[in-house]
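Okay, can you check this protein?
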Amino acid sequence: MTERFEYPFKENYAEVDGIRLHYVDEGTGPPILMVHGQPTWSYLYRKMIPPLVAAGYRCVAPDLMGFGLSDKPTEESAYTLRRHVELITGLVEKLNLQGVTILGQDWGGPISLRYAIDHQSNVRSLVILNTLVKITPIPLFFSLMFRSGGFSSFLSRRLDLFRKMAFGGKLMFKRPLDPRAKEQYKMPHQKAASRAGIAAFPKMIPTNADHPNATYITDIEDTLRVWDLPVLVMFSDKDLAFKVEEGQRIAAMVPNGRFQVIENAGHYLQEDAGPELAERMVRFLRDEAKIS
């Protein structure tokens, strides 16, 4: 195993429907499925895993297809939202995870939540971090740069512009990021051929009812409105993409939701405030366990 900065976890691999997925699997007890988004990998959860394990939980953090240490098909057509959900579903089944708490952020939100609503009997609770659960308008500059066919692919793959924006400066992080951590975030996609998954994700955002993912995403919100299970929503206060008001709306929308704001944190709040998120999760899960 390659030694990585602040990432002492064993490397685990499972083949799911022809794709080799890497995942972290630490601890024992009730399982927590931790799904990352764009363009990160399970490294994003490294600050949350140890305190959750210490509190008695089993943390399973996969790398999505195309990210981290998982396989990276080179054709963008290999990447669809449903395909990501199918692969995560297959991994949950291979690991025989029962009574799962679902945790997702960014694209990890819709992916993990689609698993949840399709397998409600296997879900114990939801933890929702900065993400989307409905048709979402996006800034014009983002649409022009990353959603327009071959040009957006050129920017994401050849010029590596999406990752440069994500990991450069303080655009997505609001607390100091160790240069060694930045190198780990950048590690999985050194060549243009490995960035197909990065180029594909922006095109999956449903901005209108005609988008192929519109119903697939809208079904998440429709189900959450009537699904009475414990839901903790935590949004950061300095995310350029997902605002605190959206997190409050989601928590108020669900029958059994609570909202907490994470202060002085950006889009990647797991990096900025990982231990704080874990502490709040532990309190939430223990409170719900007492009630049930």
Q: What stands out?
A: Residues 12-291 form a domain with the Rossmann fold fold (CATH 3.40.50.1820). The beta strands are 12-16, 19-26, 31-35, 58-62, 100-104, 123-129, 231-236, 257-262. The chain has a mean pLDDT of 94.
